[in-house]
Amino acid sequence: MSAKLCGANLQCEVSKVNRSELPASAFIDPQGSNSGEVERLASEVLRLVVSYATSATRRSPQPEATHPLDDLAISEEPTSEQQLLRELSSLMDASMNAAHPGYIGHMDSMPTTISVLGEMVAAVVNNNMLSVEMSPMFSRMERIVLREIAGMFGLGEEAGGVMSSGGSLSNLQALAVARNVSFDARERGIWASKKQPVILASEVAHTSLHKAAMLLGLGTSAVIDVAVNKDSRMDADDLRGKIKQAREQGKRPFCVVGTAGTTTTGNIDPLHEIANVCREQDLWFHVDAAYGGALMFSNSHKHRLTGIERADSVTFNPQKWLYVAKTCALVLFRDASVLERAFRVGAPYMNAAEMFVNLGEISVQGTRHAEVLKLWLSLKHIGRRGYEQLIDESYRLTDYFLQHVRRRSFLELASEPEMNLVCFRGTSGRLDVKALDEWNTKLQKRLLKQGNAFLSLPTYRDGKWLRVVLLNPFTDANTIDGLFAFIDAHAAEGLND
Question: What's the CA angle centered on 332, arms 328 and 334, to 5 degrees?
Fold first, then answer.
């Protein structure tokens, strides 16, 4: 910019920024000069969003990607708003349709209305959760909300934590803190240790644990599989044996991970028994309750998480059974001061408020979206009683689904369900494993194509299984009745030959 002054008012020669190449609504003028253009664009997008959400049943739960990929190229010139809206509509139509009552294949829920609107508010204020000076309200809000949630888990008055963009990052942070505490590794790393650090988790635990071990410099082999019983719950006796075996092999166990809601079958490890082992063996106890943590909102079902109050750290994803728009996850620590001592890396370029630690200094992520706003809005809008009803109704619908399964001798369960997940498949003494896998695969495709129902098809115990997650609050008994009508027709055409 020229240093030449323009008159007594000290204006520079270049008094205005040239924005001639930009659309009128490219930014919201802080002085409001383009409020009309912005309101028109916003109303068009909102109309598109509402139209999309309220017509979900007229689209497939899992549509094919139909948007022309050539249209995704970056434009040289600004694209008209009407063209953008057409392309946006096409992209939405080609996206996973979790709002459809027949979308029951994954732990992906339709979002609460207020969390969708909260995303817009968080985006427009665009605060950075790196520091309290860049997010003065939301940083404080995150600490308060997470402390209250930690209290629901029974972690005590000294508990706290941070939010993250998904359960994988939450598990990574928990294991990093556990490693740093166990090996005094925050500054020195683990190289001084003569014994390989190892983590113990059930053989059906989430694969994010292996990624975390890899990123922490331990290697995926550092995750030792512990056997599970017929219901996919960790065997505490095998856990003791694997700890003993690891030590005899010159390894150093430092953490045990219990799962509250396995991905494929939705089962819950015996958390109280695992906590006993961890206390006996002086090991960090982490609970991956990414999915099952929501049970704390149900007075009828929170007993299923007994033992979680003894954890040193807990992962929980409100983006799943609390229906908060993605992404929304958190990691809690029984003692928040341990998180600060074992993980904090100061940011000298950021000012800190008195008696407040910048969240970016104690989390894996530095710059981070204010996810806490949509979480807080959802908790306030729906309330504990509303969430309790959602969870209890999920169980009621799961019981109805199980009645259908158990009435059919040609269907078998992978485990006894403990949550709103049911993993099952068709079986027959006349067909070998390969033929059964083909039958279940064809059934999954038939249900989607003809029945407008999407079930996932995980590989479990060396076979193909069908999995339902009864999460959508608009999935009902009629949906389930229709699904089993197709299952019966499919069985009549091949399974009982």
Answer: 170
